[in-house]
Amino acid sequence: xxxxxxxxxxxxxxxxxxxxxxxxxxxxxxxxxxxxxxxxxxxxxxxxxxxxxxxxxxxxxxxxxxxxxxxxxxxxxxxxxxxxxxxxxxxxxxxxxxxxxxxxxxxxxxxxxxxxxxxxxxxxxxxxxxxxxxxxxxxxxxxxxxxxxxxxxxxxxxxxxxxxxxxxxxxxxxxxxxxxxxxxxxxxxxxxxxxxxxxxxxxxxxxxxxxxxxxxxxxxxxxxxxxxxxxxxxxxxxxxxxxxxxxxxxxxxxxxxxxxxxxxxxxxxxxxxxxxxxxxxxxxxxxxxxxxxxxxxxxxxxxxxxxxxxxxxxxxxxxxxxxxxxxxxxxxxxxxxxxxxxxxxxxxxxxxxxxxxxxxxxxxxxxxxxxxxxxxxxxxxxxxxxxxxxxxxxxxxxxxxxxxxxxxxxxxxxxxxxxxxxxxxxxxxxxxxxxxxxxxxxxxxxxxxxxxxxxxxxxxxxxxxxxxxxxxxxxxxxxxxxxxxxxxxxxxxxxxxxxxxxxxxxxxxxxxxxxxxxxxxxxxxxxxxxxxxxxxxxxxxxxxxxxxxxxxxxxxxxxxxxxxxxxxxxxxxxxxxxxxxxxxxxxxxxxxxxxxxxxxxxxxxxxxxxxxxxxxxxxxxxxxxxxxxxxxxxxxxxxxxxxxxxxxxxx
Length: 651
Hints:
It is a single chain. The chain is α+β, with helices and mostly antiparallel strands and 651 residues long. It has helices at 3-12, 27-30, 42-48, 68-84, 102-110, 124-131, 136-155, 165-168, 175-185, 189-201, 203-207, 227-231, 271-291, 316-326, 334-346, 360-373, 386-398, 410-414, 422-435, 438-456, 458-461, 465-477, 488-507, 509-512, 517-537, 540-545, 547-565, 591-601, 632-638; strands at 95-96, 220-221, 255-256, 264-265, 300-301, 514-515, 568-572, 580-584, 612-618, 621-625, 643-648.
């Protein structure tokens, strides 16, 4: 298979097989005035028009859906991109197609399970703990990759240490013998198999409740049960729902079922716990695709020559390194932040914002001037026109050497619309957003928040959710060389799909940065097990050295326990003059109540309320910034060993 064919295979997963029946573009499309490279507009006019009707080209009203009128804007945007010839000197992204077996090895390594094929891997203990927390569907996803890898090695006549899946997923041993075997043969093949087998057994605890039970409605997003477990409840043979072109105001209002122990968003957790989250999310995402029968191939980008400095056409990591020298802690490119600020300062009411392009020669000149003057603070922002600023923002996104949604997960994003229901599509997007590298995720979040603010002014700027999604889709999805890697028919088939995906990302962005509770429960179980192992394996001499400290700590714990039994918790605030305070527990006490009380008692605090957070630290979590609606009594029951600390939010 050639590389070109392989890449075509990737993007073909993005939509339905109906692309083969697409008609040829009508003559009206060629008369529409689009450049030769973009004379593809007419395809969707034909699809949506009846025989004998003239495809309408006038602009759609504010509530029109993703129809032929909106797709007209899509192809116009493609033509603008093609005509601008962005980053002409930049190399095209080339995708590496993994050899047979390599993809499984890469997946197991990324999931933190390298010990299943490489006994010398360094994270053996963590792997065994991770495996013990998996649900049925997650365990099945691991089993599938292990079995495929084993079969591949057998075909190559290579020696392998991959355990047989019949042994890996055998029923767990009795409780009496489990600890003895773990003690005597930790790290051995037997222990490896035993730990994996408990994954399937633990499904009862992690995903046994049937999805959709109780008072849950079609628009409720259940975060307590694994998405892949929920997918089992859908009828077999359910057909893919074609993207429904609902008007913007007809899209369902999905909502997350509130959790008394608090919602957890990206940025709320420590780096150590986020590492666990990412591994679990990768396994869950794969299990969700497996359960619904959607084939998923991941690819790696080959190394290409990239600019090592500058603003446009530079890797996100490089831009952020430059930015952090100016403003430590920067998480979103400063040039992007400044362009967004300028557009908002000048007013989001400008008609056709994002859709109407700036003058190409002027935009190129401004781009060159920004490269020279931006970091020195010498660029004359007052001279920058609104449409030029919007064009520069789109230019920054599409000139990234690797796409914002990454090469690795590009095909997964494009395949989201293959899921049977919109709820499952959102669940898949939720997992994919959590899988993005931190720089891509933060940049995407800032972009989507800006796009929503543009839509909030649709009465003035005439840019509805539909309009914005259609215009932004080519800029988000079409990385350098993308159009040369696919056929014209594939591009037609993908156009509506990509616009619909951007539409979902914008419309439901508040849901997509939430870490599901079932993942958090698995993280807590891993931390509990790791702590147990640490305590058990601690050397006697270390225990002796710490006896005095432990006695002191036990006294503290006794005091803490006494307070809890008396209906109080101790809240620390070491950053501020009021070091700690006792707070009485009630059935309704929330994290916001504690912050309010703290601010009322310490007038010296100069930090804004929105910049303060109550943290859950220790016990079965490393560190977690609490949602203000967190019920403290419910959380204390979930993590009785935690400490509570007020400090500045570190998002």
